[in-house]
Amino acid sequence: MKKIMISNGLRGKENPVEYVQKCRSAVEEYYARRGEEIERLDTFFKDYDGNRLQFLGKSISEGVALADEVVFMDDWEQYDGCRTEHFVCVTYKVPVRYLESK
């Protein structure tokens, strides 16, 4: 079973919870079409206290570091955290994939 982390920016999204679910569905559908079972590493932390750097560190240590692959969604390039996660993936050779939430 492949461990997948989803990287998606939420700042400015009208309904972040709905957007996260849309991204999750798109990722699950993508891997299901390929017959691959996945375990999604959840980095939508409910105990987020507003400290962006702490949140990013947690995302990298509990997501990127444990993932077999990181999926970058939609306009990920517009978000500092997503760009940093991408840099970490490239630097540490964690496979990446790019998908649209539709």
In short:
With 102 residues, this protein is α/β, with parallel strands linked by helices. Helices cover 40% and strands 19% of the residues. It is built from 3 helices and 4 strands, in the order E-H-E-H-E-H-E.
Describe the overall structure:
Helices cover 40% and strands 19% of the residues. The protein is α/β, with parallel strands linked by helices.
How many domains?
1
Rg, nearest Å: 13 Å
- Gross geometry: globular
End-to-end distance, in Å? Answer: 25 Å
CATH class term: Alpha Beta
Largest sheet: 4 strands, parallel
Low-confidence stretches: none
Mean pLDDT: 92
- Sequence of strands across the biggest β-sheet: 2-1-3-4
How would the blueprint of this fold be written?
Layout: E1 2-7, H1 16-33, E2 38-41, H2 52-62, E3 69-73, H3 80-91, E4 96-99
Parallel strand pairs: 1-2, 1-3, 3-4
Which terms would index this structure?
3 helices; single chain; 4 strands; 102 residues
